Amino acid sequence: MAAKSQPDAPQTKSRDSFANDGAATQGQWGRAWEVDWFSLASVLFLLLLAPFIVYYFIMACDQYGCSLTAPVVDVATGRVHLADIWAKTPAVTKEAAQLYALWVTFQVLLYSALPDFCHKFLPGYVGGVQEGAVTPAGVINKYEINGLQAWLITHLLWFANSHFLSLFSPTIIFDNWIPLLWCANILGYAVSTFAMIKGYFFPTNAKDCKFTGNFFYDYMMGIEFNPRIGKWFDFKLFFNGRPGIVAWTLINLSFAAKQRELYGQVTNAMVLVNVLQAIYVLDFFWNEAWYLKTIDICHDHFGWYLGWGDCVWLPYLYTLQGLYLVYHPVQLSAPHAAGVLLLGLLGYYIFRMANHQKDLFRCTDGRCLIWGRKPRVIECSYTSADGRRHHSKLLVSGFWGVARHLNYTGDLMGSLAYCLACGGGHLLPYFYIIYMTVLLTHRCLRDEHRCASKYGSDWARYTAAVPHRLLPGIF
């Protein structure tokens, strides 16, 4: 599901090759053109299972103290029936519906009606109008990058209410958590369905659409590459970044407020989860312009996978650690807390510096220093669909000489730190590291399949120079 993704292999391009990258073979872009039985089975499996997973985890915390096995045992032994569990699940409420509608409307306004001003006074921050990558049809879309501004305004208002205005309780998100889940599902399915209808009848750019003829695959993986309303409202950028990721840190703050209300204190585990995940979120918004070069924007079409995933999967399953700590407050020993913090910060450092080395290498066409030395490169070439030959360089220095996707490794280290902050009492908070390992490993293999198709024997030389993907000496 939704996740902050990464660009593909570190490379530089000539100006000619950048201008014509959209002419690369269509198979390199996004989802499939034809659907085999395995792809269809996988799509149906996810469409049916993913909503159930979200409900099951949230229900397990609400009714079974976050135990993942107790509901199964109760149903299997006949102590309860599925209808009993469903009957105890809070339904959508008028308050939750109003709250969610207000939240989404506010984020739409911040996204579309308030041009960015942060780039005018924050050194090093890239905001305002920025260009995305070339689409398969050769279009270069422009984006209003203002996610950091939206995050700051939203959180300033949250803290102002918490400390001065008291218009609503800071526990309001937790108190309406399951009713809000139904609202998020309604939006996720509504926007995914609208995106599919739009792709058939009034696409933003018909040349950037893909049709397989299989309803379920097209619904999940999307038809349009960049569905838009008007000039600036881009579905993919909005739903990838707002409202789910802006809400992530607010959700954690509400969980911390609930923990204080219930137990009279906020534990150091809850503080660690809030701090480490806030670093992740702020990094996303600080580098939102860089995000325009990632897989989500450059290769994925907009369908249920991103639409529902960003509305439901991301805010409900990426925040499981904070939710767990409301039900099971954990106070870590000083060494344990220090170890979790160190692991999280080290993971973030590797993730950020690896991406920085790649960006520096690309921006300077390799004329830079990596770890104090001139970078080593693999010269490579590829042929685009129009028959033209292009040249690139693949970086094999710095973090990119240690492993081909060491930025993913740093991401996984940070993910593990969130989970370790919750102790070892339950499996539920560890779902995140399991999911991220599967997701990033799959994304890693997907990157490499595309690069192998693109570069051929040159990619084989690159993998020989950097033999490991994520863990040096292991994988």
From TrEMBL:
Chief place where the protein resides: endoplasmic reticulum
Annotated localization: Endoplasmic reticulum membrane
EC number: 1.3.1.21
Transmembrane residue ranges: 37-58, 150-173, 179-197, 302-320, 332-351, 415-440
GO molecular function, one term: cholesterol-5,6-oxide hydrolase activity
Coiled coil: none
GO biological process: brassinosteroid biosynthetic process; cholesterol biosynthetic process via lathosterol; positive regulation of ferroptosis
Pathway named in the protein's UniProt entry: Steroid biosynthesis; cholesterol biosynthesis
Keywords: Cholesterol biosynthesis, Cholesterol metabolism, Endoplasmic reticulum, Lipid biosynthesis, Lipid metabolism, Membrane, NADP, Oxidoreductase, Steroid biosynthesis, Steroid metabolism, Sterol biosynthesis, Sterol metabolism, Transmembrane, Transmembrane helix
GO CC, alphabetical: endoplasmic reticulum membrane; nuclear outer membrane
Membrane topology of this protein: Multi-pass membrane protein
Chain spans, region Disordered: 1-22
Annotated catalysed reactions: cholesterol + NADP(+) = 7-dehydrocholesterol + NADPH + H(+); 5,6beta-epoxy-5beta-cholestan-3beta-ol + H2O = 5alpha-cholestane-3beta,5,6beta-triol; 7-dehydrodesmosterol + NADPH + H(+) = desmosterol + NADP(+); 5,6alpha-epoxy-5alpha-cholestan-3beta-ol + H2O = 5alpha-cholestane-3beta,5,6beta-triol
InterPro entries, sorted: ERG24_DHCR-like, Sterol_reductase_CS
Gene3D superfamilies, per the entry: 1.20.120.1630
Source superkingdom: Eukaryota
Keyword Oxidoreductase in record: yes
Function: Oxidoreductase that catalyzes the last step of the cholesterol synthesis pathway, which transforms cholesta-5,7-dien-3beta-ol (7-dehydrocholesterol,7-DHC) into cholesterol by reducing the C7-C8 double bond of its sterol core. Can also metabolize cholesta-5,7,24-trien-3beta-ol (7-dehydrodemosterol, 7-DHD) to desmosterol, which is then metabolized by the Delta(24)-sterol reductase (DHCR24) to cholesterol.
Quaternary structure (record): Interacts with DHCR24; this interaction regulates DHCR7 activity. Interacts with TMEM147.
Protein family: Belongs to the ERG4/ERG24 family.
Annotated protein name in UniProt: 7-dehydrocholesterol reductase
Lineage: Eukaryota, Metazoa, Chordata, Craniata, Vertebrata
